[in-house]
């Protein structure tokens, strides 16, 4: 049986109501802030699309989503659904996701912190891109990581998958 760490840092009022809305709004308008996207995943209970800003990472030709705040609702929904969409402006990229084991996260977390520490470093407990491997391994269970790929790479997804975006 897999044990899931319960760590989750809720966004404060300013983050939720100002920063996330601003970044999400700009991204929906087609302005990506340093590579940000809006993640859309269907809710595991409601089935309704849920959206939140995320910072995708590309490392060694693979793409990842890292949860700096821990085991958030988007993480739980993505675990349940196994797929979602990354949105920027009118463009939507359908993807499948596979969660990465803690033992595989060290270099992914290091690269993520190197790129995004200026924005999310406070959620990593003083661990940064120059931290020793032991420190990155210590925090790995607190930060879920998903490898994402085009749906066809991991399979066609689930029956209740998000629909393809309309062709314009």
Task: Outline the structure in words.
- The chain has a single domain, classed as Pnp Oxidase, Chain A.
- 30% of the residues lie in helices and 24% in strands.
- It is built from 5 helices and 7 strands; from the N terminus they run αββββαββααβα.
- It has a 7-stranded antiparallel sheet, with helices on both faces.
- The N and C termini lie far apart (46 Å).
The CATH homologous superfamily is named Electron Transport, Fmn-binding Protein, Chain A
State the domain count. Answer: 1
Q: Strand share of the residues?
A: 15-25%
What is the CATH T-level topology?
Pnp Oxidase, Chain A
Compact summary:
This protein is α+β, with helices and mostly antiparallel strands and 168 residues long. It has helices spanning 13-28, 73-81, 106-120, 133-139, 151-154, and strands at 37-42, 49-54, 57-59, 62-66, 83-88, 91-99, 145-150. The chain has one domain (13-154): Electron Transport, Fmn-binding Protein, Chain A (Pnp Oxidase, Chain A), CATH 2.30.110.
Which tags fit this structure?
single chain; 168 residues; alpha+beta; Pnp Oxidase, Chain A; 7-stranded antiparallel beta sheet; 5 helices
